[in-house]
DNA sequence: ACAAAAGTGTTAAGAATACACCCATGT
DNA sequence: ACATGGGTGTATTCTTAACACTTTTGT
């Protein structure tokens, strides 16, 4: 049974990316409209096939870069989907990844009109997706919520400089609940992983609000001292 | 790029199982000694190849049943490992699963001596494993610790009837730390998901200790009322 | 002067932790 | 009678949650 390779069936392997973004108000997801069969015209996640010379992480990076042009994106593997009939055309096992991209750094999406049209949707207004992609998105949301509480991944979704209010809005969008302003700020400051700038953002109010940066060095130092990030 | 299936490479897909057990004292892992190449004679996880007519969960079930004869085992998918050179003989992508089996229900292991010899190891005394199996085990331990705090999975590893002390020892083994007896019992009782029997286990002491059963109905009712299990 | 968002601490409630003695029984 | 593990409750600390007013400044 396991003592030989010769009798193994072979499979097409795909990656599908759940791409999250944030526009300072709502959590978004990037979807593409399929311009090819099967399920032409329907919305789906961005995906691609694994190639012999790469591993799954690299395939996900490649797919993401093709669509967004972005490199060094936060990507995390989620789950392998393998139902025999999940893809009606051909047996395909797909490994899902979720990506966090900072909407303000994001250049135009590679929407070449030929293969697919890409579009940002509010996470709660996304259309029905093909295959098992709806389940993939639900799963990704759960993981995102969990991760947001145990790793400072939120910063991946924000511009380099951001206000406390933006950070709070992001966490509210991820967790799906309102948070208390003072408690939130106290908690964040208690973590001591932000650098407060002298600069203010004057867009949101007359008074202006101070900008902060995530201090990755401080964070890494704390983690290596055994500090456990917990929001 | 994604608009056709024809140019896709194909891959051998495997599942590898991290099989945890508990002997009332230590957390154990079931490993097999390979009697075939590559890496003949070395210890590894139990694995097998995915077949066309099944999905990954089914493949993991099959592999596990072949080894242990057990059905209805708790199995959870963990991660897809896909390094190009992870298996020196042939490009193989492997999806890891962890399994929890109740050592007392476990019949003899299917150790047929021809293909492999299976052996239980204390988790902290396990030998070096082939390929990336060491990483798979580390990953599985982390997931097990997390799950143990948020789902009553511990009960999968115990006999149907068990004492509080057994339950506590199990959690201590999983979490790798000593717990306070009174606090532990208070917490467990606070969850109100156990059924206390009139029966006593007379093996562990002269006085005897009451046996308990996990009440799955109560648990499910609580969960569907929105109760969040948190140990 | 007022509208609109920023900024700032304290108190109360709840959760987690530390801790020590008596009980039942077989030998 | 004693040795062994079983069983039980309270006080303290820490963490989390609730809560309201003043500041700044552009119009």
Automatic annotation (TrEMBL), chains A, B:
Nudix hydrolase domain: residues covered: 10-145
PROSITE patterns referenced in this protein's UniProt entry, alphabetically: NUDIX (PS51462)
Pfam families (alphabetical): NUDIX (PF00293), WHD_NrtR (PF21906)
InterPro entries: NUDIX_hydrolase-like_dom_sf, NUDIX_hydrolase_dom, WH-like_DNA-bd_sf, WH_DNA-bd_sf, WHD_NrtR
Record-given protein name: ADP-ribose pyrophosphatase YjhB, NUDIX family
Species name: Pustulibacterium marinum
